[in-house]
Write a structure and sequence with these properties.
Helices cover 42% and strands 17% of the residues. It is of the alpha/beta class. The chain has a domain of 195 residues: Rossmann fold (3-Layer(aba) Sandwich), CATH 3.40.50. α4 runs parallel beside α5 and α8 packs across α10. The termini are far apart. The mean pLDDT is 96.
Length: 284
């Protein structure tokens, strides 16, 4: 099997490449090697590489920056996946695409299931919904995975940021009224491989099990890193305004995985602890 990974310099793409390498010939391309907003380039690269599976981890992920760069967000997160989908359709290839919890408005009190109607609230959210829609419309062989609160080695993420901040300051303020499911790139990549090998198709929610607030994740991460003496104060979203709206509840129920008998991913706390201890703990 040959696998093409787009967004090859990113956090998720790097994890995908590592996980698929033992079972496949992996080609990971960053934007310099493949700009997915260029439809002709997508077609040419697929003809050159001749993959069996395309894993699209290319995305504009700076949620706040997207608010002031709507056209670019729509090109990268919306039309780019559509270009890949069209190229994959013409070559009868499987396209795996990653979407987001942000497609929901966060008003539902319970975790969101795959059949819940999307209601994106910001530019990033709308662009990601456009991308998953383009993939589902244009690529008959597709696997769309909605993921959330992603952290992992080799990239910027909340856990890394909060541990770094705790090392440089005695006090932090962290939002405590947004709830989600933190998800480890290593676990997401492993589950992707299992699903590709099993022949899964369609839309799934894939996150680590359980849920927490950003405040709870921050407190736990700082403790796992062995940092003491830092005061972490819970605040509301209103006290910490940002350009892009955030869903208050973005917990994704892995309902389809459970319905099909898949073991759910390990608890987020186990995954986050492993990441912090392996990657972020201060040297002895």
């Amino acid at each position: 099997m040959k696998v093409l990974v787009t967004g090859g310099r990113g956090m998720l793409a790097a994890a995908l490449a590592r996980v698929f390498e033992p079972c496949a010939a992996v080609v990971a391309l960053g934007r310099a090697e493949l700009d997915i907003t260029d439809a002709a380039a997508c077609a040419a690269r697929l003809d050159e590489i001749r993959p069996d599976v395309v894993l699209n981890a290319a995305a504009a992920t700076n949620v706040d920056a997207c608010e002031s760069a709507e056209a670019e967000a729509m090109r990268v997160n919306g039309e780019g996946p559509g270009n890949l989908a069209e190229a994959c359709r013409a070559r009868r290839l499987l396209l795996v695409h990653y979407s987001t919890d942000y497609v929901f408005d966060g008003l539902k009190p319970e975790p969101y299931v795959e059949d819940d109607p999307p209601s994106p609230q910001g530019v990033y959210a709308r662009s990601k919904l456009l991308g998953e829609t383009r993939v589902r419309e244009r690529a008959p062989e597709h696997l769309v995975l909605r993921i959330s609160w992603v952290f992992g080695a080799g990239g910027r993420n909340f856990v890394r940021t909060i541990v770094g901040a705790a090392r440089t300051g005695p006090a932090l303020r962290v939002v405590d009224d947004q709830r989600g499911s933190p998800s480890y790139t290593r676990d997401l990549a492993l589950q992707t491989r299992r699903m590709v090998e099993a022949g899964c198709r369609g839309l799934y929610h894939v996150t680590n099990s359980g849920a927490c607030t950003w405040y709870e994740l921050a407190v736990q991460s700082i403790a796992w890193a062995g940092i003491t003496g830092v005061e972490v104060t819970p605040v509301t979203t209103g006290e910490f305004p940002r350009p892009a709206p955030r869903p208050a509840n973005s917990v994704l129920a892995n309902a389809r995985l459970a319905r099909e008998g898949w073991p759910l991913l390990r608890p987020w706390s186990d995954a986050a602890r492993e990441y912090v201890v392996e990657s972020l703990s201060a040297p002895a």
